[in-house]
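Hi R.,

Here's the input for the dioxothiomolybdenum(VI) ion complex you asked about:
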Amino acid sequence: MNGMPFPNAPRVDARDKVRGKALFAADDARPDLVHAALAVATIGRGRVMALDRRAASVLPGVRLILTHEDFGGVKSAGFIMGGGYGFQSLQPMLSSGIAYRGQPIALVAADTLEAAIEGASLIHATYETEPFSVTLDAPGTETINQADTPLKNFFHEVVAGDADAAYAQAAVKIDAAFTSPAQHQNPIELIATVAQWSDGTLTIHEGTQNAEAIRQGLAAALALSPERVEVISPFAGGGFGQKNSLQMQTILAAVAAQRLGRPVKLVVPRAQLFHDASFRPVSRHRVRLGADREGRMVAAIHEVDAQTSRHDLFPAEYAAVSSRLHGFGNFRGHERLVRTDVQTPGYMRAPFEHAACFAMESSVDELAYRLGKDPVALRLANDTVVDPISKLPFSSRHLAECLQRGAEVFGWSRRTMAPQSMRADDGAFVGLGVAAGAYPGMMVPAVARLRVTNDGGVFINIGAHEMGQGVRTALAAAVARKLGVAPERVVAEIGQTGVTPQHLTAGSWGTASAIPAASEAADALLSALAELTASGSRGQTPAQILKAAGRHSLEVEIRSKAPGQPDAIYDRLAAGLPSIGGPVYPEFTTFSYIAHFVEVRVEPRTRRVRVPRVVSVVDCGRVMSPRTAASQVRGGVVWGIGATLREVSEVDPRYGGFLNADLAEYLVPVNADVDSIEVEFIDKPDFKFNSAGVKGLGEVSMVGVAAAIANAIYHATGRRLRDLPIRIEHLLD
Ligand code: MOS
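And here is the predicted structure with dioxothiomolybdenum(VI) ion in place:
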């Protein structure tokens, strides 16, 4: 692969998407379909004592009602971060126990969606209630040091040097506390399953980031051989971490379809998704920073309490990223988990990094003011080429260039340092803020099968899921360039079990894992084609070479994995288990970086905050697909605006569950909240990391936005706000 940038080609699936040809699971309208709906618990914790199904059962069209009494022999598929496959270990309806408000208690299947919904509403339960705790400080929660849990085997303490001693002696100190609320991913595509049995084989059509986990998890739950389960997910309409595993409703739909001998479709409505799929847990942070008078950061201590469920330990990895932002002389991270009565939280886009960098980069801004130093200059003066934690070199790190380029594009030099020192013509306070973000560079194993045919077909089969991020387009770009064909000729067969192993697509490792494998497969194919021609294949397309050699097609298969991963990782891949490498590799550490520059306007009377301009400069290694990459970053910045100024999943400790469980009351940014977002890429390949030079992009794009906005609000108003989301009432006198 040469060093030329990739062209700004359109999405390969754009035409299908705008014409409605890309079929999502909820679009499925096969004949004979039975529709299912769920009834859910209306208590915070306890037990179902009795379920009255009479009214539902006589409703016209209702065909099947399932409750916890109907799942004998079905097992939980386990928690994905606990050796299993599910978003949590608790599979609803396997017992009468209720662990959280909104947990399903019955499934009603009917000839029409309307009858199913009405039937579910007619299920009447009586309960025995128990006390429950849904906020971090409520009586009855349990707080545990992550280091004292089995998670310590996976998630190491993040420690370098003696941060406490260095902090004690530091000339200048910051000590601040931050909170980040519960939030929900809310992909536009609701989680939807169509389950169908045929000759003892179960086929699942579901938009997912993890087809293999659905397959293996269903096999485990239903005591089937994995060969008896096929999962098809050509498109997911947004994942953001919520679709990263076997969902609770997939098992329910599969059992209903088996009982009925007909295909069952179960689309989980938005309000239920707030309770029956993952979410971003509440976290609270204490950051202590110590510096010398010249502004060298000698100590950072980052302590976090993060919410988990009663039944699972959702790992906290906040310090893993805050520790890699700057060249901290000494660092100590400490993470504790707080058990509450909710469904198990999970990975929501930049799950730890967003909240961790909000806390750390707000603190760095505060330090800059304490030192009287420019916030960009302070960060540049604390840059590092060595990972402070592993002491290994970064495989690449261009954060300084991101900051410098961003400052130039944004016009940072016009900024006057003092809070409230800049005003717009209309009297609004103008605030200019900056923050950095980082995200671990991870890779997972992949098997790529590449086939060309003599009529010009190019087919790449690989583990990857298309959830709107554009992995098909990136694959097409990589393969097309190598083979010298048009990108639109490349067909990517992805998100389907039984073709090639499908690893979970998450953690921003999708492109960094699939593209090197696809590129290496293309190299292998070129070698195989060269062997077909004694001489003179130069300038010929693969189809021409095949024709000349009298061949119909040619196929190669290659495997690739993260640096340092053992060959046994391919067994884990095939078993549908997370097989994640990095960000620390044998010879280096890999992170992606970003710098965000934000302008806010705060209206003096109402204190309404607007974000008219964001400039984001990204170091994600090689950019495979400029159009989809820039789109990812703009989307990430919008997520950052939402996470900072809008989004919170509200909890009432008296009732449990989440109160604002719809898009009318869970506020996300609308077009009026989003103005100019300028995106630039450093676009320097990281060939130490992998053969394509690609690092991750999707999640780093939102990391640091919250701090940049909060820092801009401080610059505008002199108010240092440390609790998300930032609201007008926090800015009023
Ligand atoms: Mo991402 S939150 O790892 O799908």
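One thing worth noting: The radius of gyration is 26 Å.

Cheers,
M.
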